[in-house]
Each structure stands twice: as C-alpha cells, then as structure tokens.
TrEMBL record:
Subcellular location, record wording: Nucleus
Main location group: nucleus
GO MF terms held by the record: zinc ion binding
GO terms for cellular component: nucleus
Keywords noted in UniProt: Metal-binding, Nucleus, Zinc, Zinc-finger
PANTHER family per UniProt: ZINC FINGER BED DOMAIN-CONTAINING PROTEIN 39, ZINC FINGER BED DOMAIN-CONTAINING PROTEIN 4
Protein name per UniProt: 15032_t:CDS:1
UniProt region (Disordered), positions on chain: 13-39
Residue ranges with Polar residues bias: 13-33
Superkingdom: Eukaryota
Length: 629
C-alpha cells in the first residue's frame, strides 16, 4: 500500500498554492530573503520530495537522500536545507517550482480530453494505474491518459520519464511477488483462449489466464498475457512469443492447460520448449483428430516410463516407432513383396499362419494409426527378419532402411501386446479412417467404451507377471488416469460436493474410487502415518466412505464448493488435497471472459501508423472471484 501511495504522489500534483506564496515580502534585506528561502526549502511540500528519497523531510540530520529520476545517481546528506536538492532538479533535470504548479523547462505537449470525466474530485482510475504498472509493454501511454478519460483533466501529470521510471520499479517488484506467489502452489492451471473484447470491432486477442486454489481454498485467477491475433502471421513464431512469456514466469508446477481446441502447444512439441510441455495435461472439449488418443498416449507413456527398470529398451522402441510410424509403415507397404522375396532367398521360410497374416496385411489400405498398428502386428516375423538381417539383403534400399530400423531399436517392439491393444481401441477401428467432425457426446461415448475395454483388460491381466503384459498394464493405467482428460473432468465433478455419485457411470465411478483411494493412501503415508501402510489404507478407506455418504447438496444450490472444502479439510484431508489440485479445472471448461479488456487494450494501442497491436506481457490483475475478472 505504501508503494501505491508513493506512486500516487508522483501521478498527482497538488494545484493548491504553496504556503510560501502566501508570505508577504515586507523587507528587501538579504537576511529576510534568506529566511524566506529557508522556510520554502524546509517545507514538507517542497518540490524535492517528489523526486528524492525518502520522499519526505528526514527526521535526523545525516540521512542520505537519493534522486530517484531514472539514470541519476546523485545523493545528498541532509543538513536541514533543500537548497542543493532544488538546485539539482533545476540544473540537471530542468524541473523547477512555479507559483502554481510543477513544470519542466521543456513543456509537455498539451493534450485535450475528448472524453467526459464526471468525477469532480482529483482522482485517478486506480485499476487502470495498477494495470499500467503491471504491464511489460513499452511505456507510451502517459501522455494519453487524459484523452483516454482515465485521469481527471485537472490533474497535471509529471514528466513521462519520471512516471516511467516509477512504473518500471513497481512492475519489477510486483512481477517477482506474483511469480513467487504462484510458484509456491502445488499446481496451477492455464487457460488460453481467443476472445473478441468488442464485437463491433471484430478484432481477436489471445488471452492467457492462470488459476489455482490456495491452502485455504481461496480461488485465484490472474490475467498475464493478451496479444492481438493476426490471421496472416506465422503461427509457430506467434506461439513461441507466448511460450517465452510463460517461460519467464518459470512455473515448474503447471499441470493442466486448456487451449480451447486451438492446438496451441501442438506446434511446439519438436522445438526447444519440449521439456516445458512434457508434464502438461491438455484439457479440451473435443479433439479434431481422434488419432491423438493413440499416438500421443503411446508417445507420452513411453517418455514417462522410459527409466522404468526392465522396460527401457521397449519404451524407447515404442517412442521411436510412434514418432516414425508413418515412414516405417509406408516403406513396409511399398516393399513387402521384395522383403518377402529377399527373406526366401536366404532360405528362411514362414509357416502358413505367418503367410496368411502377410496376405491380410497387404489388404489394409487405411493409413490411420489404428490400422497401422494392425498392419505392424500382422507382419511381425518378416519385420524382425528385416531388422536383424539387414546387412544380408542384396537390395541397397532395404539394407539402408533395415539398418535405420535397427538403430531405432524397432526389433524390441512388444508385438505380443499389439493384438490386445487393438482390442482396447476397437471402438476407433472405423472412426479414425477419415477425418470427420464428431459431437462431444459421440466422443465421450467412444472414450467410455475404450475405458470399459481397458478396465476389463486390466482385470484379465492383474495377476500376470509377463513383461509384455506388465507393459500393457502400465499403458492402460496411464491412459485411464493420466492421459484421459475426460477422467480428469469426471474426477473434478466427483470432488464437487454438490455432485451425486449416481450421476457417474459405474465403470467410471469405480475408476475414480480406485484413483482417489490411492491418492489418499499416499497422502496419509507422506503426511500423517510415516510409512505405516495399514493405517494409511484404513484412514483412506474411511475418508472416501465418509465423503461418498455425505449429505447431498443440490448442484444449483448457493453452496460454494471451495467454501465447503475449506470447512471440511480437517475431516477429509486426503481428498481436500486432491480437490485443491483438480477442482479448479472445472472453470477451464467455461468461457474465460476478461471484463473491461477492451478499455485496457485501447489504452495500450500503438501510435498511429504502427504495424503491431497490443502486447501485454504480464499483468497482475489478480482476483479471488472468477466473475470479477
């Protein structure tokens, strides 16, 4: 608050006449002039205290007073007089005291307000000033504050460089405070959406907001990026600018993001920002490409489990195969007859079953991910022969590709799980063959059927210790819990105290219970019972049972779910920790309006003739109520 008052002193210059102007000169003697000058210099309203720290008359002689004008390092020892200070401002900075106001030797260009200002008091629009202070955009709007209608025309602003210096100081301080505050949270969420602040203008802006729940279940939402969208720009370069803004915040605790179906991060998976994106889970209403379910799930699972004991080679092979699947399948389809002939020339024969599999593989014409996996599963034997004996082939192209596949470790692919994986993904067999728009309901139904298949497969394999089955189980669990954003959505709904368990399908409810139970057990192990597994399991079971059997609240009731959890976190500590993490994701499925953004954008509009629009790097418009932003 003290910082704000200091900034307010800089923005506002009193129009009242100084006390010294009321003095009547009754003598022309040098002693009387000296006395009057000293009275002026020592006045607490003296000009110097607007530019010298500590911004008021020091209480003790010997105090160091520093000039705060950007680029100036002058300081004076306080000896009871401001003569040096006033002289410095006049000679070095062209600032002097007139009879009625603070002026510069080089006057500012006058500005005429075209917007009515109804407030008769000398006030500045506080939210706007906070917004300006928190803006990282080049400072170019001080002289336009009056014409924009945000500042009373009667207020005389100080010079631009003074205000800019103070704003930069405040920005740096507030930016660090904001970053530190968000970094202390366990997890935070991003929402990236394209909005039109004013429908009449028709201009779009990409707006990024961040939200989380505190330990006291206070909801925080921050706007920290807004940039005009140009349809003719290079999307990859444009998105990199936004990623740079995110990297500046150094948020290692980002967990979820919603980009409104615009594939915001998809363009950057192969660039230097891959590590930043790796641990983020995307929340979206309905994907435009169902192949994402298979391709990205396999790739991300392989990355996450790459260091798992006994699975390194296989996960590496799956990652390489997923990345290069199109090229691998294309080569195999084009050369399957030649490969088969070369293998026969090496006196290697296939049994009848393998021959039939090869014939069936040749009939597959679809190039979707599902049928590529099916094709690869049918030509296992010739593919292994190709990779393991690549240097024995006469055809140079086959030798080259075979060597490349060997380097990718594709001979380590777990072919045995492909058929079971296809069983789980059976609902996608004909859906992914061609691009088509599907409804959210249809998409949800598809994932429900896949979840049921995965759950049934896990039950079948629960006692199997076979390495390939362990890999399959790992992938199925990952797909059900980590990758499936619908599971996250259902989990958030389950953790909403206004919801009813019978509104969730039995299969999904079973998965949610299993997931929450494990998370609660981990919470008790880590925080309460110090690795006592039995007590942790018992406490987790009792807590989950207590929550499910709680008195039901109406979904449209006035009960605030955050307030409910704040009052219940002592009784349900494990689930409360989970609610803090997942409950805020519910707001990310809603529209993300930013009230008054059009006014803020207009304030930052570039000078006439500029090619770029507004680019607000970081803003600290922090609120505790979603509807207030």
């Amino acid at each position: 608050m003290a910082g704000y008052k200091r900034n307010q002193e800089i923005f506002q210059t009193s129009n009242s006449n100084d006390n010294e102007n009321n003095l009547v000169a009754t003598s022309s003697s040098g002693a009387q002039q000296t006395k009057r000058k000293r009275t002026e210099n020592n006045d607490k309203e003296s000009i110097c205290w607007k530019y010298f720290e500590p911004f008021k008359v020091p209480k003790e002689n010997g105090t160091v007073t520093k000039c705060t004008i950007p680029g100036c390092t002058t300081s004076y020892i306080w000896c009871g007089s401001t003569s040096n200070h006033v002289g410095h401002l006049k000679t070095k900075h062209g600032i002097m005291k007139s009879s009625t106001s603070l002026t510069a030797l080089t006057p500012l260009k006058p500005i005429t307000s075209t917007i009515s200002f109804n407030n008769p008091e000398l006030e500045i629009n506080i939210p706007l000033i906070k917004f300006i202070i928190s803006s990282g955009a080049p400072f170019s709007i001080v002289d336009n504050l009056k014409s924009a209608g945000f500042v009373n025309p009667d207020i005389e602003l100080s010079t631009s460089n003074i205000i800019e210096g103070q704003i930069n100081k405040a920005y740096n301080r507030l930016f660090l405070q904001l970053k530190s505050k968000a970094q202390q949270e366990k997890s935070i969420m991003l929402s990236i959406c394209e909005i039109q602040p004013d429908d009449r203008i028709g201009e779009s802006y990409v707006v990024i907001t961040c939200n989380w729940l505190t330990k006291d279940f206070e909801f925080h939402k921050i706007l920290f990026f807004a940039k005009k969208w140009f349809s003719n720009i290079d999307q990859k370069d444009y998105y990199k600018d936004i990623i740079e803004a995110l990297l500046k915040l150094e948020f290692a605790n980002l967990k979820f993001y919603n980009d409104d179906g615009n594939d915001f991060f998809e363009l950057l998976h192969d660039c230097k920002y891959a590590n930043f994106l790796r641990n983020l889970t995307r929340l979206r209403n309905c994907p435009d490409n169902l192949n994402y379910l298979i391709e990205k799930s396999l790739s991300k699972w392989a990355i996450k489990n790459g260091n798992t004991q006994g699975m390194f080679e296989i996960t590496k092979a799956i990652k390489n195969a997923t990345t290069n699947l199109c090229g691998v399948i294309s080569f195999l389809k084009s050369n399957i007859d030649l490969i088969q002939k070369e293998i026969q020339n090496m006196q290697i024969t296939f049994d009848y079953s393998t021959i039939m599999d090869i014939q069936n593989a040749k009939k597959i014409s679809c190039n979707c991910i599902y049928h590529k996996i099916e094709f690869l599963s049918l030509i296992e034997n010739p593919f292994i022969q190709l990779v393991n004996n690549y240097d024995n082939y006469k055809d140079a192209n086959i030798r080259k590709e075979g060597k490349y596949f060997k380097e990718l470790m594709l001979d380590s692919l777990p072919f045995g799980i492909f058929s079971k994986l296809l069983q789980v993904l059976k609902p996608l067999e004909h859906i992914t063959c061609s691009y088509r728009v599907i409804s959210t309901k249809e998409y949800n139904d598809l994932l429900d059927r896949i979840s049921i298949n995965a759950n049934n497969m896990l039950k079948e394999l629960q006692f199997s210790k076979d390495l390939e089955h362990e890999i399959l189980k790992s992938f199925l669990i990952f797909s059900c819990y980590e990758e499936n954003y619908l599971f996250i959505k259902r989990l958030a709904s389950f953790l909403d105290p206004r919801s009813k368990p019978d509104e969730i399908s039995p299969v999904n409810l079973s998965m949610i219970k299993e997931f929450t139970l494990k998370k609660c057990q981990t919470f008790y192990l880590d925080n309460i019972f110090s690795d006592n597994l039995d007590k942790s399991m018992q406490a987790a079971n009792e807590e989950l049972k207590c929550y499910i059997n709680r008195p039901q609240l109406l979904l449209d009731s006035d009960i605030n779910p955050y307030e409910w959890w704040q009052g219940s976190k002592q009784m349900l500590p494990g689930l409360a920790a989970l609610a803090r993490e997942y409950l805020p994701t519910q707001t990310m499925y809603e529209d993300d309006p930013v009230k008054n953004l059009d006014k803020l954008i207009k304030t930052h509009e570039p000078t006439q003739g500029a090619d770029i629009g507004v680019e607000i790097s970081i803003s600290i418009l922090e609120v505790h109520n979603f509807s207030d932003i």
